[in-house]
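Objective 1.3, modelling of assemblies. Example input:
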Amino acid sequence: MPSLLIRNADWLVTQNKARDVLRNSSILIRDGAIEQIGKVSSVSADIEIDAKGKIALPGLINTHTHLSMTLFRGFADDMHLQDWLQRKIWPLETKLTDQACYQGALLGSAEMIMSGTTSFVDMYFHMEDVARAVGEAGLRGFLSYGVIDLFDSAKAKAEQDNTRKFFDYVRNLNNPRIKFALGPHAPYTCSADTLLWAKEFAEENHSILHIHIAETRREQADSQKQHALRAVEYLDKIGALSENMLAAHCVWLTKGEVGLLAKAGARVAHCPVSNMKLASGGVAPLPEMFDFGVPVGLGTDGAASNNTLDMFETMKVCALLHKAHRWDPTVLNAQKTLDLATIDGARALGAENELGSIEVGKRADIILLDSRAPNLAPLHGRDTVVSDLVYSASAANVDTTIVDGRVLMQNREIKTFNLHQVLAESQQAALTLVSG
Amino acid sequence: MPSLLIRNADWLVTQNKARDVLRNSSILIRDGAIEQIGKVSSVSADIEIDAKGKIALPGLINTHTHLSMTLFRGFADDMHLQDWLQRKIWPLETKLTDQACYQGALLGSAEMIMSGTTSFVDMYFHMEDVARAVGEAGLRGFLSYGVIDLFDSAKAKAEQDNTRKFFDYVRNLNNPRIKFALGPHAPYTCSADTLLWAKEFAEENHSILHIHIAETRREQADSQKQHALRAVEYLDKIGALSENMLAAHCVWLTKGEVGLLAKAGARVAHCPVSNMKLASGGVAPLPEMFDFGVPVGLGTDGAASNNTLDMFETMKVCALLHKAHRWDPTVLNAQKTLDLATIDGARALGAENELGSIEVGKRADIILLDSRAPNLAPLHGRDTVVSDLVYSASAANVDTTIVDGRVLMQNREIKTFNLHQVLAESQQAALTLVSG
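Predicted structure (tokens):
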């Protein structure tokens, strides 16, 4: 693999422990890992990228999405969640094909690469095809097949088989950027047996267990009715919580439930844009999660409910939402918000030793923003760079996206596939799906 | 003035009364006005723009900003409003110069042009220099000098003189795109005499009266303490409300106050991003304003508190905020949100006969978005175009910006000034200001 030198970035936002922001610094990458940082002017490499005028930062980590649903972007908006699912999304999903999921995943990959996301956690169907698209795109994906047994033991058995089949598929790919994850959909769609099976499978294979928890008030009300327990209390009682768990949403949690997640070592994928758009009500209790030490990452959720996969937008909306909700502008500052999208996101994936910061020895998942744009001017200095990234930057400022030391985009041109073809083919796939 | 033909836009979002979205349509522009819409393939014009692959819509209207404050972008974030003002903003503002305000206004103009804003309402100081910048940029500005008398009659007199001087300056410019507006800062910084004087001046000259009202709870508490009345009740009592009034923020209003605004014919500039970022608490009661028939537009506020001038972002955050706040995804749908940024914004300016929609006879303030981008794919059809604009589009999709039939940007290249020079000079101006 060719070595890569990112030369002389105006600013290098390391996201290391000290949160150092370095001036005029270079990054030397060998075998996909970061070998040297700082003044490396004498070093040469197989490929050089001139980063003058650029801001370098760790690639963003999207901890919850449904990539193939990018095909449903804009298809159904301004609806109540149950209407949205029952009248629009589920009928479409019955018509999904391998090819549609592949096209949707490639389109979503294009959007992620162009908006600076380098790692993501997915849950959906036809996951072999998603893996194929993500492999071609060059992104780092933690991919889970969405398991729904609806408390039917025959269905549970079939879903376990589907999961094992996908597990084998990913193992045979032998692609270090594509990781298998468990995907029991939610406590209200999966039996206790399935949840416990998934937990065991995740522990045995050191995999993330991706699940939806407490997205809506209704889910909590139903849980109370069915189990006389809130959702996380129920999961705790049956022994389904674990440190492999990455729980998306967690909007409607009590402090007690946050405490249970913390005790189990579970992590949270916070999806502010989707929660607001679907009017889930309430706001995920991030400050309490921080207090209890629960690792929290940010997610976009699928483009059907967001409607983008833009983590810059998600960062800003996240900070705005919590400030507004707590009537306190200090409650989620720019640095902590950037942490959520980078190093905290890596922690939520259990990958903080490999991802989430620009440090020697870590994988080279790095993005460059071109700071020579009106929305990033003026740039007041070291103390404001992080604030500029969170409150002023937009996805379109991302100029270069690098995963594992491989350049996926440079000068906003995707290098790993033909964008125009993907746009045309995904448009066709979406129309076929909707009209079919 | 050369005639202009926008040929064959894939989609033309008219924002006319029927909210027609036209397919494969052209727009013929003569003398800065829209002369013809639809199938005009036989017509030729001095300048032609090929709009294949593009979405045409009315230029966005930003009903509240402080353009020169773009120099303060990112300078002070994550602070309580009073800290922010007293420790950071006001000390900087004492150092403002004509040249700094000119540079800041040009930088802000660049950002607006590149994010699809064609009209805006401003309030600040050194307004001759702002007018100069806006004139060069070619934007449509409603400009007010910010009057603050702090209940001192000598200061009031001086501020009236400053206002008259700026009024004369604008009249002498004789630029149809630059309109004078009154700018009494707020009920808590201006005496009743000044407020009444401003009202009379606005009525005589058919000008907007731009003012801040009820941005914070504290303002309402202080008003209760000082006048035993809430802010709008106080303005009503002294006779300061009028149909010329464009009141920014209006976060902390009772239904009774909304009723008083409606009765007076006053309008509101809603600034969701700034209100959330400064953690003003509460949420402006938009549904109640709609019920009472108060015209509402959207504003970004200044880049010091937003931190962008991006109306696409403001549209999306606006819709998200109200859905989340009311636990109802239907409360502000995509169409109404786009209305707020276009035709309703025009109504808030009292300019609905000239601006805010693409209709024959109106001024040609038009933007084109390039739909061939991952974040705008797939495009499901006529029913989803507006939703795509509000929830999926970003400022960077704006390809062409036209004001009064003049092309200010094409292929994302600004035509009216040298962007690189403006970026360099505004960076210098900001550093001088901060270090000076």
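The longest helix of chain A spans residues 153-173.
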